[in-house]
Write a structure and sequence with these properties.
The protein has one domain: Roll (Pnp Oxidase, Chain A). About 30% of the residues lie in helices and about 35% in strands. It contains 6 helices and 9 strands. Strands 1, 2, 3, 4, 5, 6, 7, 8 and 9 form a 9-stranded antiparallel sheet that branches. A hairpin with a 2-residue loop joins strand 8 and strand 9. The longest helix is centred in the last third of the chain and has 17 residues. The radius of gyration is 20 Å and the shape is globular. Bound molecules: flavin mononucleotide. Flavin mononucleotide (FMN) binds next to strand 2, strand 4 and helix 3.
């Protein structure tokens, strides 16, 4: 297989993109986030809540994976995960994280960096109760990112965890909501002529400052 040829035949950033009027850009980056999210939903972007979530471990090694945005709390981005997973342990050691949304259908990328904090126990509990049975069972097993010997082992553990879900809807241990408080947010709008727009918002002494970046 000639991968280079396949890549060349399927170029990135070649769609029909919306306008991004930077003169009208709001002073607060979360306002653009809401605007772009709503627009992505209207344009039927596939899975707009899924994004790349990057963490760094205690020795400085990065790792990234897809997670779903669950909610917003003022300026904060809420995600849910297992506190004993790789990302959970990373966040225990290093609060610096990054989030990257890519909405291919509209040529938009949003990059966010900030620090995480754990959301209150009460909210964790409320969120856990709303999860579906399979997600609850996985949370109860609480082994995300540990080595799994076989898919049979997963099936066995899911079966016994399913019983716990029936009996005790609060039987969660490690399901944790995290809030990312943004310190930098960059909005990238692809353009056909490749003069892509990058509008960056940086928090300086508690105030958001915005400026353009070279594409
Ligand atoms: C579309 C999609 C959404 C996902 N959403 C979440 C999520 O919200 N929370 C989560 O812990 N894992 C989610 N995952 C699984 C993660 O990508 C990852 O496999 C898992 O969290 C273990 O990551 P870790 O070993 O780096 O901690 C999602 C995966 C996909 C493909």
């Amino acid at each position: 297989m000639d991968i280079k040829k396949l890549i060349y035949k399927n170029p990135a950033l070649s769609g029909d993109y919306p306008e991004f009027n930077i003169e009208d850009a709001p002073d607060h980056p979360v306002d653009i986030f809401y605007e772009w999210f709503e627009h992505a939903v209207d344009r039927k972007v596939s899975e707009p809540a899924a994004f790349v979530f990057s963490t760094v471990d205690a020795s400085g090694h990065p790792s990234a994976r897809i997670v779903n945005l669950r909610d917003m709390d003022g300026e904060g981005f809420i995600i849910g995960s297992n506190s004993e997973s790789r990302k959970g342990l990373d966040m225990e050691n290093n609060k610096n994280v990054s989030m990257t949304f890519y909405w291919r259908e509209v040529g938009r990328q949003i990059r966010i960096t900030g620090q995480v904090e754990i959301v209150s126990e009460e909210e964790n509990r409320r969120d856990f109760i709303k999860r579906n049975k399979t997600s609850k069972a996985l949370s109860i097993i609480a082994k995300q990112s540990s080595k799994l010997d076989s898919m049979n082992e997963l099936d066995r553990e899911m079966e016994s965890a399913a019983k716990l879900v029936e009996n005790d809807e609060e039987a969660y241990k490690t399901w944790t909501l995290y809030k990312v408080n943004p310190e930098n947010m960059e909005f990238f709008q692809a353009r056909k002529d490749l003069a892509h727009i990058r509008l960056n918002y940086e928090k300086v002494n508690g105030e958001w400052q915005k400026y353009l970046l070279w594409p």
